[in-house]
Specification:
heterodimer; A: 250 residues; alpha/beta; Rossmann fold; six-stranded mixed beta sheet; four-stranded antiparallel beta sheet; 10 helices; 12 strands; globular; B: 308 residues; mainly beta; ten-stranded mixed beta sheet; nine-stranded mixed beta sheet; 19 strands; 58% strand
Chain lengths: 250, 308
Amino acid sequence: MAILEVRDISLQVNSTVILNGLSMEFWEGFVHAVVGPNGAGKSTLANVIMGLPDYRHHTGDILFEGESIKGLNVDERARLGITLAWQEPARFEGLTVSQFILASAKDKNKNEVDRVLELVGLEPARYRSRAVDKTLSGGERKRIELASILAMKPRLVMLDEPDSGVDIEAIERIFEAIDRLKKDGATVLLITHSPKVLEKADHAFLICSGMLVDKGETNKILEYFSGKCLPCAHKNVPDLNGLIKSGGKL
Amino acid sequence: MSEDLVEELLESINLHRSFSKNTPHVVINANKVLSSQVVEGLIIEPEELPDGVRAKLLVKKGYKIKQPVHLCFGMLPERGIQHIVLNVEIEDEAEVSFMAHCTFPNAVDIQHLMEATIKVGRNARYSYFERHYHSDEGMIRVVPLAKIELADGARFSTEFELLKGRVGVIDIDYSTICQAGSSAEMKARIFGRLNDRIKIREAAVLEGEASRAVLTTHIAVRDEAVADINNEIIAKAPYSRGHVDCKEIIQGNGVARAVPVVEVRNPKAHVTHEAAIGSVDSKQLQTLMARGLSEDEAVDLIIQGLLS
């Protein structure tokens, strides 16, 4: 059963078409990937689903558990259980890791902070009191973002480029956190152009120029993406109009 | 009677259970010294004035006072003036830290005026933390004025915090002269609401070679509150270093101005500044809202971080 459905979503920004009639279904409890080259519209799709203020003027509809969420704000969608981890997480001057995690935690017990930090491989005693600011490395910040999401116990998690800017150890920990989210019953949506991340998915969508190119089992999409998309010289953004006129045939 | 007043003042700052009379301290209500305690090497000589208290605080040469010295300046009445005149001298090689609490829990119309002259001797260390507790409704006018002189190698830090209750009107004016190898660090963190007025001037003159100063001001204003920050570093000596940092968050009809002044008179000196004023960062806001916090809850948490 689909926990989330996007129906014929189009979005135009400053006369540039970013999403063009996207329709997708995300099945509950699965790890899905939305894969595509740079500029394909992957992050925009995540921002649209999250309901971020600059992405609310799309056409089409978004259904969560069969109900339209198009009219809901970011926090209202989050309270339904939808959340997003940005490619570059925000830094918070003066806010401790503990405060940051507890802000989103369903269980406000301080033990929860330790539990989720351990799950992402960060030693609680070393990190609880640290500020969520520029003193954290990219990998540490991403893991703390995931810890806050684990504490939130969401229904649908979108992770935008979860492997970008992190070292090998951090990637392994992030993959473990994805496994944990799935085990806890969450639906995971990985936004990626990395074959390694794509391999974590049960099911994948391939998009290019804001349009759905293919969908199906991960191996099939991975093969197409690695063989045709990665070597492809097509640039998404400057060439959109011609692509749209051709009916989206790549 | 005075013990009851001490208890009431300490209760207003949540220290009534943890406070020990053996701690070096001075507790003042309006113009009355209610309690004081010194330790070896520390001299406190308070003198009551018609509208306040004049006090000499001295740390003798070479003495390192391990426990923080607790200063509690308060006014329990609803109205009045409290004028505090401090003459502080930290002699060469001495060390001390002060923890000051200024509490006006019942204030309707109060003026808290402070004049301080502070001399920190050669290689001496002095730190001063001042937290204000104001009533939620009253009008308080706080005017702290301090002139600080740092001898060679002296270390000076001061931090002013007013986060709970109404600011009313606050007008801070601190200026420091830094001799060779000395360092000054001045911080202010204030949250203004309604029609509060915040005016801060912090200044440091780097007179001596390799002297240093950092001036940090973090302010949040909402409703109709206004903040006006003028921080200044003048670097005259070679290898002197300075930094001015001002961050202000505004909400509603709040107004914030920041004028960082940096003046360098020696080619081997270096001073930097940064000032950021604006509403709450949208990415921070969206991140917290994407975790289920309402916009107001998210803004409060971000401001709490900035002012922490």
